[in-house]
Specification:
Layout lengths: L2 E5 L3 H12 L3 E6 L10 E4 L1 H10 L2 H6 L2 E2 L2 E6 L4 E6 L5 E4 H11 L5 E3 L3 E5 L2 E4 L4 E3 L2 E4 L14 E11 L11 E6 L3 E7 L5 E8 L9 H7 L5 H8 L7 E7 L7 E2 L2 E3 L2 H4 L8 H18 L5 H23 L1 H4 L2 H13 L2 H12 L4 H4 L3
Parallel strand pairs: 1-2, 1-12, 2-8, 5-14, 12-19
Antiparallel strand pairs: 3-7, 4-7, 5-6, 9-10, 10-11, 13-16, 13-17, 14-15, 15-16, 18-19
């Protein structure tokens, strides 16, 4: 049986491990942390991600602990509408910890090795900090934005950051499956439903690199005059629940292979979070990898995977950066983006959104 070594036990690494095991490969996933800790609070899983989870056989487990997303709203700080739409296919909002546990449980027994720090990786070989050297027919870098396989350029700071959190339970009705984001000038809030009355929310603002992130009182102050669901979510959040973040990303990748190593997730295409496609694209990577590994020799897998994925991820990295201009660009650009989103007919906007949120047919795309 062919064997693969996957470096990194996040969403990208776990889903890649599931994909290769379904393609009848022997898989080991190496994670340097002694236990899996979710980085971040929750993830939007748009229709493409849900379709990918179905292909990997994990959708029922994820769906059982997630909340459905039936519509999306992009509004202004005073509650005005910029864009809204119904979601035609299944979409979910999942706590990151729940998604990671569902993926971990779907791996073959013993495939995940915790506490394994990889020092170096090259084609067919990885060196672990304890002195062990492992060899395989395929090495996959799922190590996130600090990819161990190396990168052509360092990640760039996107000019904004903030905090995100999971609230405590909130009494009363929810949003009936609405995923909402509200734009001010240079700042924005997002708020989404989770099971048991919890909310996932975030606050992002334009700021210099290395700025101090806001605390819970500053978030509550900033939210004055914003829609009620934002204020309620913040009020129900413990002060120590905030997770600070500064957004870093890379330019569209020129390749998904480096030094003989295949890259997935942020190791391959670290993008800004403005489309909610980071985890979704990691899951798409896994589906493409599953088909490439099922129908090609070990030497051809990288070429087949890149053929299936490169153009799409380049497009999404560009689109994610452009979407951020509606809040974090120059004031004139912000106004232009918002006006365009309001006036563009649905007949033109829907195909573009659907292209981003629907899973391509990777079986045929991985044919060489």
């Amino acid at each position: 049986m062919r064997n693969a070594i996957i470096v990194g036990g996040g969403v990208a690494g776990l889903s890649a491990g599931i994909a290769l095991s379904k393609a009848r490969w022997d898989v080991v996933v190496l994670e340097r942390a002694p236990r899996l800790e979710p980085i971040g609070a929750a993830l939007s899983l748009w229709p493409n991600a849900c379709a990918a989870l179905k292909s990997l056989g994990v959708f029922p487990a994820v769906e059982a602990g997630a909340s459905p997303i039936s519509s999306m709203l992009l509004g202004t700080r005073d509650g005005g509408r910029i864009l809204d739409r119904l979601i035609p296919e299944p979409a979910l909002l999942s706590a990151r910890s729940h998604l990671q546990h569902a993926l971990q449980d779907s791996l073959p027994p013993g495939a995940l090795r915790l506490g394994c720090e990889v020092l170096r990786a090259r084609s067919g070989c990885v060196e672990i900090a304890d002195g062990e050297t492992m060899t395989g027919d395929l090495v996959v870098d799922a190590g996130g934005i600090g990819a161990i396989s190396g990168a052509c350029e360092e990640p760039r700071y996107a000019g904004y950051g903030g905090v995100l959190a999971l609230s405590g339970p909130i009494e009363g009705s929810g949003f009936e499956g609405q995923a909402a984001e509200f734009w001010g000038w240079g700042e924005r809030f997002g708020v989404f439903e989770l099971p048991k009355g919890q909310r996932y929310w975030f606050y992002m603002r334009s700021q210099p690199a290395h700025s101090r992130m806001p605390n819970i009182d500053e978030c509550a102050w900033a939210a004055r005059g914003w829609p009620e669901q934002v204020c309620k979510a913040i009020a129900a959040t413990p002060a120590d629940a905030l997770i600070p973040f500064a957004v870093h990303a890379r330019k569209p990748p020129r390749s998904l292979l480096q030094n003989g190593i295949l890259k997935v997730g942020d190791a391959a295409h670290a993008m800004e979070p403005n489309l909610g496609q980071g985890a979704c694209q990691a899951l798409e990577d896994a589906v493409a990898l599953m088909h490439a590994a099922s129908r090609n020799s070990a030497a051809e897998i990288g070429q087949a995977y890149e053929k299936a994925r490169l153009d799409r991820v380049r497009m999404l990295v560009r689109e994610a950066a452009q979407a951020g201009l509606g809040v974090h660009g120059p004031r004139a650009i912000q106004l232009l983006v918002r006006t365009a989103l309001k006036v563009v007919p649905r007949a033109l906007s829907e195909p573009r959104i659907n292209k981003m949120q629907m899973l391509p047919e990777y079986r045929s795309r991985t044919e060489l």
